[in-house]
Design goal:
The protein is α/β, with parallel strands linked by helices. It has 13 helices and 15 strands. Strand 2 and strand 3 form a beta hairpin. The protein binds adenosine-5'-triphosphate and magnesium ion. Magnesium ion (MG) binds next to loops.
Amino acid sequence: MEFQSVIIIRYSEIFLKKKNRGYFERIFKNNIESAIKDIPHTFTTTAGRYYVENFDEENTEKIVSRLKKVFGIHTMSVGKRVESDMNKIFHTAKSLCPESGSFKVETHRADKKFPLNSVEISREIGGRLLSSNKKLSVDVHNPDFYVYIDVREDGTTLVFSEFFDGAKGMPVGTAGKGLLMLSGGIDSPVAGYMMAKRGMHVHCLHFHSYPYTNMQAKEKVVELAKVLSSYTCGTRLYSVSVTHIQEQIHEKCADELMITLLRRFMFRIAEILARRHSMQCLITGESLGQVASQTIEGMTSSNSVIKKLPVLRPLVGFDKNEIIEKSKAMEAYDISIQPFEDCCTVFLPKYPAIRPKLDYIEQEEAKLDVYGLIEEALSTLEKIEL
Ligand code: ATP
Ligand code: MG
């Protein structure tokens, strides 16, 4: 039979209705292409659709699994493209049918010159399928499977049996750049995923306390950044040591403010790095009330050291189990739960301050050479290859 495998990609029209349609489409196309650039194929586009074709059949699953991570794709179908000829359409439809069960044929006809209209095409193909196999039946209300026929204007017809969900969202790169503060935990990778889904290009900054935290902790963060990178068309990972900052806080300031003060250093350092690289916001995995430092007072304390950039906290209103679900869905969970130390567990006070007042925080912080410590930390900045 003369047919060619095709992967049909549909995007949500919503973001294309704006004036900058061309801009969105160009980025979206680039993202799709870069997700599968190492797999030979051809890529074509017509209004509202993209087609991946001329690939080795064996690579179908690999291509689909990559495309499932491209934000902006609404649905996809894997099917066949044949010449618009009823015999060929029938044989292709038959090849997609299971051995038994009920079905419904749905036809869309873009080519108005095709001799049969969509109802007639459905009826004829359905009839021929029925007489070709006695174990098939028609059920137009609740079929076991569908046969979709799409007669295109170029003399070819697409035949497929399934629509499956893409990652949805907006193409990465259409909504600016942000710097994600990436720990080794469950929350921050999910926060990065959520911003990428809204079209933001996300890069990562990790703070470590080597030698208090070990190399495995770093490896874990690298693995998490790689997972994120598979959704973001390439994520950069930076790391900075906060070891000396923690030692100084431990030595000079009230014990209960360890985390609060450390966070303020992290935010300041993150803002400097973000602005150096023209990133437009900071992103954290904080969720209101989840732990002692994630109170509104804690967030006020962290935000007050930021000069220009907004801090986005996409998980602020989520329950932990909702975050865990998202973490599993993005395939980060198994990495996140590996038990390695994070810098925040070093010098962890027995009773961290839950609602620290800003005056008190600033008074304690004044015991430190804040800018000297930041400069020193920035001198440990590393870009880690993924
Ligand atoms: P996560 O699961 O992301 O570690 P968490 O619930 O453990 O979050 P905290 O430890 O209070 O929460 O951290 C809050 C946020 O601060 C994190 O989501 C992350 O954005 C940032 N953060 C914490 N530790 C680090 C770190 N070592 N490097 C970079 N960012 C960090
Ligand atoms: Mg954590």
